[in-house]
UniProtKB/TrEMBL annotation:
Residues 115-290 form the SET domain. The gene is SETD9. InterPro entries: SET_dom, SET_dom_sf, SETD9. This is SET domain containing 9. It comes from Taeniopygia guttata (Zebra finch). Signal peptide: none annotated.
Length: 294
């Protein structure tokens, strides 16, 4: 029991404000200093947008047979995807006249085929750290979106007290917005409720699969990236990204975030993890839990 409590504390302490205040000086190597919110960008928002668009389109085409209801309501979009599917089928040497015969890849394979790498959860290389995230295949260049931080998005004034109790997966954005990336308990129930509330007919506005072991969006593992240490320096960094209003509605089913309050007119906040250096196959991802805004 004591061992389990120690394990939970090692994971939770980075979210515990009094502990942070006492340990800031001795943990300077793991701090991330942000002079201004506007400078908190490793890569441009346009690059984040294009990366998400690229992988989400590939996932959509890979799962084309399941998209019939959506495409029936979007005839112009259907024509565009049929053209993309034909190109993909020719490249894969599949009969372009029979869409049902297309080979369906796993989401991890789609990620590798599209961006040149795959990531997944596994036991961390850090002692007592629990689960971590690894590059399991391929190579990730510096300045690449390598994962996303899933969860329910809360504004400053919104209730999150009960969800936050003993929860090491609360991510705080620079402007005070909180993202609850816990895939269990009350947090799980809240996310599912909000996701189903926002669904419009066949159009899903968010991805629920990150709550399960079978991911629809293979990037949605960012909440399991462990904090860096003196031995394991950070190789990825958090970057906030507001999903623009013109984001394709048919691709929102892959966004692993949902707003808590339905009546708020604002862009959906997402957080992506961007590589700070080249990362090779087999390496574990490490981030900075501390962000100091000066």
């Amino acid at each position: 029991m004591l061992r389990e409590l120690r394990r939970r504390w090692r994971s939770y302490r980075y979210r515990f404000v009094p502990w942070l205040a006492l340990n800031l000086r001795r943990q300077r190597r793991t701090l991330r200093y942000v002079p201004e919110s506007s400078q908190d960008k490793i890569i441009a928002d346009e690059d984040v947008f294009e990366t998400l668009l690229k992988i989400f389109k590939a996932l959509f085409i890979n799962d084309f047979s399941r998209q019939a209801e959506i495409l029936a309501l979007l005839p112009e979009v259907k024509c565009q995807y049929l053209e993309l599917l034909t190109v993909e089928q020719k490249r894969s040497k599949v009969n372009s006249c029979n869409h049902q015969s297309q080979h369906v890849f796993s989401p991890e394979e789609v990620l590798f085929n599209t961006l040149g790498f795959a990531v997944s959860r596994d036991r961390s290389s850090l002692v007592s750290a629990g689960t971590g995230v690894f590059v399991t295949k391929g190579f990730v260049p510096k300045g690449t979106v390598v994962s996303m931080y899933p969860g329910t998005v809360y504004r400053k004034h919104e209730p999150i007290f009960f969800q936050s109790l003993g929860n090491p997966f609360i991510f705080r954005c620079i402007d005070g917005v909180l993202i609850d990336g816990n895939d269990k308990g009350l947090s799980r129930s809240v996310y599912r409720s909000c996701s189903r509330r926002d669904q419009l007919g066949p159009f899903q506005m968010s991805d629920e699969s990150w709550l399960t072991a079978t991911l629809q969006n293979p990037l949605a593992v960012g909440q399991y990236v462990n904090n860096c240490s003196h031995e394991k320096t950070a190789n990825v960094c958090y970057q906030e990204f507001d999903v623009p209003g013109h984001f394709p509605v048919e691709l929102k089913q892959y966004l692993p975030n949902i707003v808590y309050s339905h009546d708020i007119e604002s862009h959906l906040r997402c957080v992506v993890l961007v590589t700070l250096r080249d990362i090779k196959q087999g390496e574990e991802l490490f981030s900075n839990y501390y962000t100091v805004v000066s």
